[in-house]
Amino acid sequence: MDWMSRECQRAWNETRRLYQSLRLPELSRLSGGFRLPEVPHLNGVPPLSLSAVPPISSRSLYRTYGPITGMVAHQLLAVNVMHPPVITRLIPKRDITNALLLMSFTGASLWLWRRPHIAGTLPSRRFPWVFLGSSMYVLGSVLMWAIIRSAIGRHPVICITLGLTSSTALTYSAIDYFKYLDKDFEPLEDVTDGTHNSDEEKYDLDI
Description:
Blueprint: H1 2-21, H2 24-30, H3 58-82, H4 85-90, H5 97-113, H6 116-119, H7 123-152, H8 156-182
Helix pairs in contact: 3-5, 3-7, 3-8, 5-7, 7-8
């Protein structure tokens, strides 16, 4: 244990020194004002930077991190249904199928709740529509995976590959379909001239 503690402390010290050495003002001063060349945009999309990562808040939890967590849970659920031993090796003492179902359903519901073609409806319609869409997405996926698994038998590599591929394809198709429906509706927030109603709105990600 002492050896492990020393190694962890050494790794932390090296990481801290590396972080301190990468401070941009310090690099700029030492290099005489030298600046790295700008990375060209790919098809008009700016390169990913840490400034695009939203801070943790109640707003970002249900607008960004909630849907993303739901997508990850959907991938894990696919593996769990297609080849359960993979998940049971990671978490041997507890069955997390219901937890993955709930996380996938919650993430899909949070994403659907903000769709422009649903956001403008009355709550009496909005709640059942979101519930219906999320249920069809999650439970329909589980049914499809169960049928595929019974058809191809026990082939771990094939099962896992088909599970992850089908989960990705279903998620992409769902996002593309609802964005097609949303194109004739006004977005939930109308941001013009690069201004935002709050500091957190600039981090909103339209998945």
